[in-house]
Amino acid sequence: MLRITDERIKIMTELFKSMRFVKMFCWESVFENKIYRIRKQEMIQLALRSFIDCIHSFLSNTYVGLTFLLIYGTMWNFNIYFDTRFYAIAFMLLSHVEYSIMVFFTEGIRSFAKFMAAQKRIQAFLLFDESERDRRLLSISSMETQSNGHRTTYEMNNEEKYLATTPAKGFSEVECNVKHAQWEQNAVFSLKNIIFHAHPGDLICIIGPVGSGKSSLLQTLTGEIAFFDGKVRLRGSFCYVPQEPWIFSSTVKKNIIFGKNYDGHLFRQVIRAAALEADLALLPNGVNTMVGDQGVMLSGGQKARVNMARALYRDADIYLLDDPLSAVDAKVSKQLFERSIKTYLGDKICILVTHQIQFLESATKIVVLENGGMIEMGTYAELLSTSKKFRCLLENINQQEEQEHVELTTDNQERKLTRCVTFSEYDHENELLIYPSNCEIKEEGSVKWYTYIEYLRAGIGSVFGILLLILVFGFREIATVFYSWWLAKWSEDEGHRHQNLTNCSNMMNEKTYMIRSMNDEEWEQYGDNRFYVNCGIGFIVFVLTFLRVIAMKLICLNSGRVLHNRMFRRLLRSPISFFDLNPVGRILNRFTKDIAVIDEHLPLTFFEFLECMFQVVGTLALVSWLNRWALIPSVIGIIFMCYIRHRYARCSRDLKRLDGISRSPIYSYLTSTIHGLKVIRSYHAEKTCLSEFFTHLDDNTRANYLLLTTVRWAAIRFDWTVLFFIAVVTALALIVRIIGQQFSAADIALTLSYSLYLMGLLQWTIRFVTSGTFSNHI
């Protein structure tokens, strides 16, 4: 089942990240059907698991009754003496065993099975091979890659795998002699025979047709691609600028400084070099504008320039630029090249992958790649005069640029129109568009009863079905209470039959006299009738329990299916602005954690909620019927518990909602980090990202811990109330018995047994409804 769930979440992640393309090509129905097919397979696995849960629920709900039936039947058949004392003790012990074995032990087994499954999945992930760069960093773990202004050299060759030294300050060098490098050992594509050197002030341009290995070469230099033969040496710190800009959900300023200390003078220089002044003037809050998940508030060109500004702010020695000029128009491209690459990075080593031939004349060297290998290298003038392949490649690139220019012009016109509408001062949704994307609104107040009814209606389809379900629960509880009362009366009759007539003659009433006057044959017939009635009531209890368990499982399964499909269908048809304002992690949180709650936790908690509510009503009715004086402590106990519930219910709900809200940034940040992993590694920002991730994790942990302590606070006060109630009920039972009122031993046994059971059950129900279980799952 976990494999199927992973497949569903994987497709949803790709879908939500590419929602613009999906809506552009009207692929909503295609992905909707695909997700529905996977969800159907997931529901089949859930149904199989629910079948096992049904067996467990049936046994746990009929355990006490079935055990009493077997014990009393055996004792009656073999003429073994039993009375109300035996019934009271047996009821207490069986109730304790029921919760210890049928509830807590089985829940422990279920949790252990989930732990083992999670442990295997985590272990398989942790046993993956380390990347080439990770191996290199592990081999030099005693040295920091970049700290306090030091520069570290990474060297790799086929004889001596990884070396690290600290060169003289201000000295940098790139030595590339790639003989064989590829992603995997048996991969089809590989880099081979690429040789060049670079020193400070050099601009190395890498060109070639699509798929020739330009981006792979840069990733080989950063250590992301496995290196099998040759030699690569990077002396000095380096920065990698990917072809696809990576922007995380924060402000423009934080995206640029990226964990470094803020330097106002350097920041202004970087903004000017990256040609961002005009763009920042258009943004509502300037550099403090939230850019949204993956930079959805920025255009493609703005993302590329923010990405470039981040690299410039690092002040590295070596810059690996993977075609950063392709996402901007010709004017901005020229401005960016002149300001950033030629001027600002004039004394640095720049290795630039590009398709824009107008900048090749400024290159110190040009490396021409084809099919993963270097076919030409030299200056622009040398290659233009001596290489026919170079001239043909320039012609092909020029034709491709002209075609892309036509498409880009149309796209820019549409983008300008979109931006005019988006940032218009008359746009009533402008405030929403600049709303912080990492701020999730927390609902206030209690969960409305309408929510519970809608959950049941999603599984049943009508209010009549809900009423029928309530009737099944009600009749089952009536039958259970009558079953216990019948056993208690049978135990009392057995006690009257075997008690000492001399000691009890003064206390003998009419019923006791009738039982004592029966001969053995009449008494045996009387006991048989008691046993047969007991079997009949037990059979009714078992049937109603089975119907109740099956009905709840089917309803909850159908509710999960309907709610998932309804939520996904409406989400697919939401406007694109919804996906701009809400990070992917927040949306995925609804389809991971929340759907898991609906599928796995909510069916069990909803069933236990209804069961507890009916048991409380049935037990309270029985205790009040047996001894009307027990109503006084019952009402007092309920008032105290409701007061405690009122004190902490709102706090518990808010903490649970805060727990859900604080979990969304974890998913969002994790998704964004994986997307920009190459950039993070090249910037040596692993510690910064880990610190930020742990901050989000700590926020969620604090909310969770406060929720647990709140529950413990209420539990202690519930225990005090229960002890008070039991003491008062016991004292009242003894007083009523002493003053001579008609209060039989069976009534006393039932009153004490069910009073203890009532307060424990009421405590569990109130905690269940208001703490971290039922209402919080809803």
UniProtKB/TrEMBL annotation:
GO terms for cellular component: membrane. It comes from the Eukaryota. Coiled coil: none annotated. Residues 176-396 form the ABC transporter domain. It is found in: Membrane. The keyword Nucleotide-binding applies. It is a multi-pass membrane protein. This is Multidrug resistance-associated protein 4. It comes from Adineta steineri.
